[in-house]
# Entry
Amino acid sequence: MGKRGATRTVRIHRHRDGVATREKDAVAVEEPLEIRVSWTDGGTRRTEALSVTMRTPGDDFDLVAGFLHGEGVASVTDDVQELTYCRSGEAAQDYNVVEARLGPGATFDADRLRRNFYTSSSCGVCGKASLESVEAAGCEMLPDDGFTIGIDLLKELPGLLGKGQGVFDRTGGLHAAGLFDVTGRCRALREDVGRHNAVDKVLGHAFLRSGLPARERILVVSGRTSFEIVQKAVTAGVPCLVAVGAPSSLAVDLAVRFNQTLVGFARDGGFNVYAGLERIQ
# Structure
């Protein structure tokens, strides 16, 4: 089984102005990725499947690293000793399974992770409990250290992100996330069919290069901002999150709680500031 690309060509019937033509079109690839964790427990090496996510193939190691950091499994780069694609017995390489081998200094509580996944997918969990869970996970208040963003840059960021969305240009079917500095330079950009995956990929890229916490970076996302996306950004120490779309109420609450600048509807030369106005010049 070989590695997949991010796009696949399909045959379509295109209808325009009353005329139907048979053509080829590019669509974004969506496939499952199983994330496994291998760690030492009482001198015994254990391996367990942790999660399955639907993603666009590519930058899978960045995706897994970002996911593990966001879930509190890996705090520093050395916590992830090795990332490998897994083999299924004697069969060919399976590029839809990634195993993260944790370093000797990393601690892994499989039961806690299972409880977290169950809670986040269950009904009836209130917003207050969700906010408290982020604090309990050890997330720190983002500091008032003089980091500021210019209004002109905020207006430009969506366009700068769009320039790097090569697969989106071909398919129209992918989200994107990018890390930028205060000069507008793109430090990393990733695309994926899932909004959360795109964020995990770009933050995982920074994590594997010892770039977290990202105290002087701006995270830009192509869609809306949910609680989970703000949580990932806060965990990564990102002081400013800019979205082309709208934030949810809980995303705003979380940004306020952790002193993050949250910007939404950044498009057409304008934007809304939902939290952290003091960082914007």
About this structure: The first helix runs from residue 60 to 70. The mean pLDDT is 89. The chain is about 30% helix and 35% strand. The two ends are 51 Å apart (CA to CA).
